[in-house]
Here is the input.
Amino acid sequence: MQAEKLCRRRFLKGAALAAVGVIAAACAPRIVEVEKVVEREVTKIVKEVVQETVLVAGTPEVVEKEVTKIVKEVVKETVVVEKEVAVAPTPGPELVLWAPKHFLPAQNDFFTASALLAAARNNFEVEVQMFPWGEYQQKQNVAIEAKTLPDVCLGVGVARYQKMGILLDVSNLFAEIGETGGGWYDVNERGVTVEGKQWGIPFHNEPQFMYYRSDVLGDAGYEPLLKDLDEFVAAAMAVTDPAERMWGFGNTFSNVPDGNNAFLMFMWAFGGSLQDEQGNIVVNSPETLEALNFYCDLYTKHEVMPPGATGWDDTGNNKAYLSGQCAMIINTGSVVNALRGDDPGWLNDTMLGPLPAGPAGAQGFNGGSTAGLFYTTEYPEQAGLLMKGLLAPDRYGGNLRTGGGFMFPVLNDYADDPFFTEDQWNKQIVAALPYMKQGNYPGDPEPWSGDLVWPWSTMATRVVVEGWDPQEALAALEKDAIEAKEKWDKL
Amino acid sequence: MISYRTRERLFRGLTFLSLGLVLLVVLFPIYWMLLTGIKPRGELYLPEPTLWTKNPTLDNLHGLFYRTPFAIQLRNTAVVSVVATMLAITVASLAGYSLSRLHFTGRDFMASAIFFTYLIPGTMTLIPLYIFLSRLGLLNSLYCLVLTSLAGGTPFSIWMLKGYFTGIPVDLEDAARIDGCTRLQALAKVILPIAAPGIVACGIFTFTISWNQYMMPMILNNKEELWTLAVGLAGLVYGDVFLWGEIMIGAFLMSIPVLLLYVLGQRFIVTGLTAGAVKG
Amino acid sequence: MADTGSDAAGQLQRIAARRLGPQRARRRRLRIGEEALIGYLFLLPAILILAVMVGYPALAGLWYSFSNKMIGFPKFKFVGLENYRELVGEVTLREAVLRSFTYAGIAVSIKLPIGLAVALILNQRFRGRGPARGLVLLPWSLPLVVSVLIWSWMYNDLFGVFNFLLMKSGLIKVPLNFLGEAKLALPSVMLTNVWRGFPFFAINLLAGLQAVPDELYEAARVDGASRLQSFRHITLPGVRTVAMIVSLLSFVWTSNDFTTFWVLTKGGPGTATKTFPVVTYETAFMALELGKAAAIPVLLIPLFSVLIVLLTRAVSRRELER
Here is the structure.
C-alpha cells in the first residue's frame, strides 16, 4: 500500500514537474552554452619515488626515497565560456527547421541550441521541429504535396528531390562551408552532386561496420580484425554453438534498413554493384550472384546465423550482440553507444572494423543525413546562414561529440578532434572510414533506387525462406530496378 | 446417469476454468508489458527472460517523462477524446433519430453510405485530407484531431443508436409531441434518457478510437506539444534503438484511463448494445 | 422497424386531423415534406463531417486513380483505366489481395467462435462479472501500434517470452522463428490480430445473448431439451444477426489492417505477409505513385460491396422470417 502510494505520488509529481518544466521552458528565453577548448595551467603536487645513490657507512647503496615535487602542467579542457541568450534582438524572419530525433537527448538538445544560436546571431528566428524516424519520410511526402514544407530539412533524399525540382541549388553554400571545415569528404561531395551542382549540405556520416567479440573469437583462435571473408566464415563457424546460445554472425535478414544495407557490403566485396559509374544497371552479374550465394550460405549452409534472423526487426542484431549471443554483427555506432552506457561486460573486448576483404577488398556502408533547402522558402539567405551555423567550427564539433560515436564528421578538419583520435572505439571506426561507400556506389546518386522496396533483403529471404533459385531472385531484382529506372528517366 | 446437480456443478466448473483461461490469454501480454516497463535495463535483454523481476525500477518512468512531454500529451489526448466523444454523441443521436424515426427518400441509401465510409483506407485519404485541412488552417491544432476522431467513431455510433432508437416505443415520443414538444425536444427529453446506455456505449467506442489515434496526430501536427500519447510512445523508437522499457511503461499508463472507463461503463455497454445490435 | 414508424406517422396524422379539422388536407402534405426536411436536417452534421473527412478525400483519391500522379510532381495527366489495367496484371497485387482476404477470412472465422464462447461465459452470473467484462476488453483498448509492439517483443527468437516458455516446458528444442519463417509468419500475425480483435466480437455477442428472452430457455428446459439443443435452436438463431454484422465489420477492418503487418514483419519474410494495404503503402510512399496506389482500394470496393449487399439481404430476409 505504501509503495503504491509512493508510486502514485511520484507519478503525479513527475507529471506536474514535467508540465511545469515544459511550460517554463517554453516561456523562458533560451540560454545557450558555448563550449570552448581552453588551456589551463594546473599546479599539481606529485609524490615520486626516486632512487638515489647514497653513502651508507662508506659504501654506495641504492636507496629509494620519496620526494615531493610541485609541478605545473598545462591541461586542455573543454569549458563553458560564454552564455548567449538565443533570442533575436529584433523580430526578423521566422524559419522552420525539420530534423529527425535521435536517441540521444543530449544530441537533440545541442543541435537545437546550435540552430537557435545561428538564428540569434543573424537576426532571424527559427523553430526546430523534430520527428521520430519511423514516419519522417511520410511527413515529408505529405508536406511536399501540400506545399507546407519547412525552410530547411535535415534528412532529405537529394537525388529524388532534385528530380522533383524542390531543392535549391546550394553549390555556393556548399563551397563556403567546405572552406571553413577543411574540405568535404569525397564520398559526401559525391552524394550531393547532381549534374555538376550541389543540391544538399551533408550533415553527418553514419558508417556501418563489423563488430567483433575479440574474447569469443580469441578463444577459438581467431584474432580480429579478420583479414578476409574466408577467415570470416571459418571464425564464425568455429564459434557457433547453438546449445551455448552463441552464433558467429548475427545479421537482420528481414525487411528493415539494417538487413537491407548489410547485403550491399557483401555485394561490393565480391565486386558487384547495383549500377556502374555511368549509371547503368549491372546488378545481374556473376559477382553479385556469388555474393548472394555467399550471404545465403551463411544462413543455410554454414548456419552461423540465428535462425530467427529472418524475422528480426531493426533491433534484432543490436539485441543479439548486447545479450552476448552473437560474436559478430554489422551495425552503426548505436551498439557501441549502448555498450558504453550499460556495459554487459564485453565493451573492452569489442573491436570494430570494415567487412573483411572479399575479392574486391574490405567494405563499409555509409549512411548519414543531408540537409536540403526547399524551393518554398521565403528566406534562402537566412536558411543558408542557418546551415552555416549548424556546421560552424564552434558548434559542429560539439554536435558530433554529443552524438556519442554514432555520428561522424563530413568535413576533414574534425577527424583530428580528440574525440575521434583518442577514443578507443572511435579510432577504429575512423580507421574503417576509407572503405565506406554510399548505396549508389560506384555511380552517382540517382532517384530511382528508392522505388525498390527492400530489394536486397527480399532477394535474400526469397532464396533462404521461400526457396527461390538465386539466379531467379537476382533476375527479379534486376527487372524491378530496370522498371524503376525507366520510370524515372521518363519524368 | 449423472445427477442434474452434478451436471450443473461440472458445467459451472468448466465455465470458470474457461474464464480463467481466457483471462490468462488476454492478460498475459498486458502483464508482460507492465513487467517490461518496470524491469531495469540490464534485465531486458537476458537470453532467458525472467517472468518477474526482483528489482522493479521507476527508471523507465523517469526516462519516459524526460524524453517526451508526457503530461502535455496526456492533456491533449484527454481533451481531444472528451470533446470528440461529446460531439460524436450529439451528431450520432441526431442522425440515428433521423434514420430510425423519419421517412424520406434516400433514407436507406444514406444508412448504407454511412457504413461505406469504413471501406476507405487511411492511405488513400491522407494526402487529400492533409491538403484540405491545410487550406482551412486547421493543421497544427487539436481541432483537426477532433475531426479525425469524429470521422472514425461516428459511423458505428450512428448504426448503434439507430437500432437502439428503433427499439424504443414511439408512443412515448408521441405523447410528448402532442403535449407540444418539437421533435428536438422530444428527442432530448424523452428518447435520450431511455437510450442512455446506448449513448454511453457510443461514447466509449469513440473515446477509444480517439484515445488511440496515432497516424493522424503525427502527420497533421508538427509540434511535440500537439501530439497525442500514442505518437509520443511511437517516438521512442529511434530507427534501430527501441527504448522498450519506456515504451512499455508508457503503454501501460496509457491504457489505465480506458480500462477504468470500460470497467465502470461495461454495464452500459452491454445493455446499450443489446437493443441496438439485435433489433437493428 | 418499418411498421412502428409508419404506424406512428399515421397515428399522428389522424390525431392532428381530428384536432385541426378542415385544414387537414393541406397539413398532411406539408407534414410529409416536413419530415424529409427534418430528416435531412438532423442528418446534416453527420453527413457534413463524413463528407468532408472521408467523402471528399475518397473522391480525390478516385480522381487521382485515373491519372499517373506522383508525389512531388505537380504535373500529371489522365490515363483513364491504365492504372487499373496495370494493377490487375500485377502478380504481386493479385497475390496480396488473395493473401489479405484469406487472412481476414480465417481470422474472422476464429474470432467468431472464440467471441461467442467468451460471451457465453460472461453471460453467466458470477461474482466479479463486471470487472471480468471490463478486463476482456483490454486488448481492444490498447493503441494498435503498442499492442503490436508488445507481440513483436514476445515473438522474438532470442529473448521472446514465448520461445522461452516453450523451450523451458520442453515442447520445443530450438526457438520458433515466429516472424521469420514463411509458414509461421502469417499465422503469427493472425494470432496477434485474434488476440486484439476477439473482445469486439465477445462484447457485441454478449449484448445479443442478453436480448434473447429467458422465457425461451425456460420453456425449452421444461420440454426436456438438453443444453446443447437449446444452444443450437435458441441461442444461435438469436445472435445470428449480430454475428453477421460484427463479422462483416471485422472482415473489412482486418483486411484493411496496415499497422499490424508493417510493425511486425513489413510484409516479410520475402513476401509471405505482403497484404494489399502494405502494397498500397509501398506504392504510394516508396514508389511515390499516388495515382496507382489510389486505384487499389477503388478496385476492391466492388468486392466489398458485394459482401455488404449479401449481408443486408440476409439480415432483412431474417427479419421478414420473424
